[in-house]
Amino acid sequence: MAAGLNRKISAASARAHTRRPNKSTSSQLPSGMLKAALAVLLVGFLAWGFQAIQPPPPKTCGSSNGPPVTAPRIKVRDGRHLAYREYGIPKDAANYKIIFIHGFDSCRHDGSTIAEKLSPKITEEMGVYIVSFDRPGYGESDPDPNRTWKSLALDIEELADQLGLGSKFYVMGFSMGGEIIWYCLMYIPHRLAGAVLIAPAVNYWWSGLPANLTKEAYYQQKPQDQWALRVSHYFPWLTYWWNTQRWFPSSSLVAGSLDILSHQDKELIPKMLYRKSFLAQVRQQGEYVSIYSDINTGFGTWEFSPLDLENPFQTSEGSVHLWQGDEDLLVPVTLQRYIAQKLPWINYHELPGAGHMFPYADGMSDTLIESLLKGK
């Protein structure tokens, strides 16, 4: 029977039958090897990408690999420490107690921008005490991996309580520190005697801001800064990588570019040179836990909009002031005007010809403090 079957198979069929395995074998082996190679490359790329976007661990002050602790500090509710610096007359003798909140890429020593330029008439005759503190991750304050808008306000409240500033105190913030004043007005308004926002940063994604206005202001920035803000808002986990990679330009603000300074700002540069004495302390615990966490919080998705806030001083026992230069290239004056219009209880002060750094101008410290304390 086997012989009969063999006679019925043609030579062509036999050749076709013997060729199929060879053809299949010759095509499958390279294909399998290619797939394996692609898989290895993909895994390697993903591993490299994951490592690339991971920021280095912080060098916490006081730890074995961190900078030393040189400033007085308090311990807050979750065990973190906040470092601070005091100015003016002793707080026990002061009539007015002010907490100053520093801006982006700054630290507690930047409180001297206001405090050490006050005239004796303001400091001594009015009785002014000012305390400036390192925000989480800056200077000698511990990083806060769980930082939120509310936690920053609670840090300020705890600082006031542990320093014995009383049931009410004043707050003053500059730039991104000014933005944090909105947190105070939202979460601890009952503790405030008054507040002043100095060129406060504006989040382009706050609800209540007109789309046409934010779009116009947003596109006035350099393209690289537009992209840096998009990343921090939509992909905050990429913020560190975006600003440290070398393929595309990163944030002008992070790089310290002079192109984002107005004419007046550049004239004021000599008055800022004293910052060189403490500049190394600002990012000493790591850039991610200081400047990049700051960007992510400030330009992320907020859980409230400042435009929805109500007047915390319904009976005029205090006041809120917002100061803005009309030639500020960092914070759009058009958006600030709109916010002031929507919140008529804010005392809005616009300075013609002023840029972002106007607090460094001669006499501005006295002007800012007097407006806060006298409610004008």
TrEMBL record:
Residues 98-358 form the AB hydrolase-1 domain. Pfam families: Abhydrolase_1. Residues 1-29 are annotated as: Disordered. This is AB hydrolase-1 domain-containing protein.
